[in-house]
Amino acid sequence: MSDLDLQPGLRECGGRADVSGRPVRELLNPREASLGATVVRRLLPNLGRRMVGAWCFVDHYGPDDIADEPGMQVPPHPHMGLQTVSWLHEGEVLHRDSVGSVQTLRPRQLGLMTSGRGIAHAEQSAVSHPRLLHGAQLWVALPEAYRHTTPAFEHHADLPVVTAPGLKVTVVLGGLDGAVSPGATYTPLVSADLALAEGANVRLPVEPDFEYAVLTMSGATEVDGVPLDPGSMLYLGSGRSELPLRALSDSGLLLLGGEPFEEKIIMWWNLIGRTQEEIAQGREAWTSGDRFGTVNGYDGSPLPAPALPVTPLKPRGRTR
Questions:
Q1: Which residue numbers belong to the known binding site?
Q2: Contact 204, 256 (CB under 8 A)
Q3: Binding region for Fe cation
Q4: For the chain, what are the domain ranges?
């Protein structure tokens, strides 16, 4: 998925200095962003927090009734230095990329794209598509050792599941309670889809060395005693061995966690680098048709890169 902001700012993120070594309860307020015909709620990067582990970008969209709408229509655009994670609760999205992947993504199937040194992709709803569209799009920052790796795409329709009374956990990336996702990871992290039945009151085992956040996809819940509405995200810090969850209705949550990301990164538009020069080189490569390849089969023009900001990069950490 793309950041379609026409004037994206340069952001420096990462480093352990601003990560609390204790549990916290920090509610992150989303901002709305337009993604073609789809309006998304952007939760990371946030004015209050820019990363959770290696997770550096979180969009939540829907549920939207697109029966008479085109649905998601994101033209070909580049990525470098990151992984994208596509996760649906309802609907379908057709993924195409410049390494030749063509895959329809359906609810609770993992679409995982590793951009490495550079890849381009497009995402769209087919002409004939389901009525509802609801999901999340996430980015994972790649560490130095892997950020120039060969680009690749993975599709995993069958993911490991852990159950408890009133709770079904689908492990999207990483591992949880002994279950491990087949998706490739490059830093210690986890993502898990939590489906809770109304009245469920459970404690989820978590890693004390990880920092965590929870995105509410649907329903009314309490996470560590904090009431959450759909589209909200609660940052939880680290230092926990379990996470209390209570469902006030049938609910869906997305758990994100990982070891605090040590490296500082620069995010601009759809590119992640370490210096402003790298970002400028990536933009020039996309504009000139180098490095990122071609997305075949998409009926339309690629997304043009916005202009780089004229102001120099100001160092910033994980929080503001």
A1: 77, 79, 121, 123
A2: no
A3: 77, 79, 121, 123
A4: 11-258
